[in-house]
Amino acid sequence: MTTQTTKTVIPIEDVRGWCGQDVLDPSGEKLGGLAMSYSPRLDLNRRPDVATWERCLQQPTQTDVADPRRRAARRDAPTPRYALSGATGSGRKVSVRGPADVVAAGGWTIAIRMRSCLLFVITVIVFGSAVPTATPATNSERPVRLRVAVSGDLLIHSPVFNRALANGGGHRYDFASMFRHLRPYLRRADLAVCHVETPMTSRPPSGYPLFNTPRALARAIASAGWDVCSTASNHTLDQGQFGVDATIGSLDRAGVAHAGSYRSAAARRRPAILTVQGLRVALLSYTEHTNGLALPAPWSVNLARAERILADARRARRAGAQVVIVNVHAGDEYRHAPSAFQRRLVRRLLRSRTITAVIGQHAHVVQPITEIAGRLVVYGAGNLISNQSAACCPAATQDGLIAILQIEWDSRRGARVRRIRYVPTWVRHPDYAVLPVGDAARLGLADRATLRASYHRTVAVVGRSTRVQPVPSRAP
Asked: Which of 15, 86, 197, 387 is most buried by a 10 A CB count?
C-alpha cells in the first residue's frame, strides 16, 4: 500500500510558537508528556518571539539515555541538545531532538535543523494513516529489560565541601574524585538515579543545620554517570525558594534531569520522563517533611502524601510513562527499621499498578529491601556520601548501597521489578571517596577488616533472597 506524504518547510520566523506554551499537533490535539520539565515547547497556533525561541533552544535536555556510550557522548558533546516529545490524546507520538535529529512520529514529526547560529527551520511532515503509530518498544512481543541504579543521600557537610575545595587546589570545588569508583556501576546501568539532599547555590557554602552546597556538585554528578536526580528532602528549603531555583539551574546546566522541587506550578505539573531503551520512564520525588520550614509556594517541593503521589503517577501515565519510579525521603534517622509512616505509605502506593517501584532515603543508615504483596521496595539506601561516622553517629552512617533494579516491561503485563542486586558502599575518610566494598577490598583501597564489617552490617539489614542479592554475594 502506498502512503501519501506531504512535507512543508517553514522558516523559523514564520513559526507561530515559543517556549513555555502547550503543544498542538496539526489536527489541534494537545500534547502531553514532555520529556523534561525544561524542554522547549511549541504552540503552533501562536505568534513567535524569536529571541525566546533562540533562548529556549539553548536549554540542555536529556531525553534519550538508551545506552552508556550514547550517554557518554552526550556528556562530552560541546554543543547543547534540544528536545521535545509527547503523545497526543489519540496515541500519536511526537519526539524532536536537535539540532539535526528527526524522530518518526506516528502522526507527524517536527524536525529542528540548525542552518546558522541564529536560524532554524521547522519541518512538518504529515503522514497517512497507514503509518504505524507504536514505538519500537511496543511493536515487539519480546519484553524490554532495564537496569536502573538508585543510590543514597548526597549529604554535603562542611568537611566534605572543604575537601572538594582542596581537591581543586583551593580555587574551585572538585567533587568528581569522590565518585570515581562508582562510575562503572552507574555507566553500566540504563538509567542512574541520584538523590540530592542539599541545595546548590552561589552563596557561601554551609553545612548543618541549613545546608548550602557548591554548585560544582552538579558537574560531578553528571561526570560520574547519573542521569536524573530526586531533589525532594527535608533540606530542600534550607535556602528558601532561591535555593530551589538555584539547584534546578545547577542540574540543568550540568545536563542532569530532576524531579521533586520546582520553580513554578506549571513546572510541577510536567513530570520528568526520560526515554530509556525505547521506554518512557518517569521519576517522581517526595519528602515526608521539611524540618518545619514553611513552603515558599505550594509547588516548591513535593510532600509525601499518598493521594498526591497517586495523582501524580496517573498524570505521568497519561503523559506516556510506561515505568513510574517513586522516590520517598522519609523515615526515622539512624534507625534501620522502616517507620510507621514509611510502611503505611509504601503499602498504599504499591496497591496501585500505576507505580512500578518505590525507593527511599533519609535515615542515614541502610534499611531493608523487602517484598510487599509480591512487589519489591527499597526502603532506604543510606548515606552515599557524608561526614558522618562513628565519631558522631552510628558506624553504619558510613555505609550505603547502590540498588540495581532489574525492570521488565511487556505489552501484556506492563512494567515490574523482577529482581534487585545491591552494591554495598562505604565512605572513606578523610578524602570522602565512596567505595564499592567488594572492589575496595580487592584493590586494597581501605582496610579489609573495616570493609568486611561494613559489608556485614549492610547485608544483615538489607537482606538477601531469591530476588534480592548483594554484590559481591560473599563478604570480601
From this structure: 197
Answer for the pair 253, 60: CB distance below 8 angstroms, yes or no: yes
Cα–Cα distance measured from residue 327 to residue 426, given in angstroms and rounded to the nearest whole number: 22
CA 395/CA 292 separation, integer angstroms: 28
CA distances to 99, 134, 351 from 358, rounded to whole Å, are: 36, 28, 12
Cα separation, 15 vs 46, whole angstroms: 8
Report the interhelical angle of 216-224 vs 240-254 (nearest 10°). 40
Q: What gap in Å lies between CA 104 and CA 400, rounded to an integer?
A: 42
Q: Could you report the per-residue pLDDT of 150-199, keeping only the tens digit for each?
A: 999 999 999 999 999 999 999 999 999 999 999 999 999 999 999 999 99
Say which amino acid occupies 88: T
Q: What domains are defined for the chain?
A: 5-133 (no CATH), 144-470 (3.60.21.10)
- In 3-state terms the chain splits into helix, strand, coil percentages (rounded to 5) of 25, 30, 45
Q: Which three cell numbers stand for residue 403?
A: 540498588
Report the run of H or E that residue 321 belongs to, with start and end. Answer: none
Q: What is the DSSP string of 385-424?
A: E-S-STTTS-GGGGEEEEEEEEEEEETTTEEEEEEEEEEE
Asked whether 15 and 40 are in contact (CB, 8 A), the reply is no
256-283 burial code (b ≥16 CB/10 A, e <16): bbbbbbbbeeeebebbbbbbbbbbbbbb
Q: How far apart are CA 429 and CA 433, in angstroms?
A: 7
Residue whose cell numbers read 505489552: 411
Are the beta carbons of 229 and 257 closer than 8 angstroms? yes
Question: Position 192: which residue type?
Answer: A
What are the DSSP E strand ranges found in 108-170? 108-116, 119-127, 144-154
Residues 366-388: tens digit of each pLDDT:
999 999 999 999 999 999 999 99
3-class SS of residue 375: strand
239 by DSSP, 3-state: which? Answer: coil
Query: What is the pTM for the complete model shown?
Result: 0.75
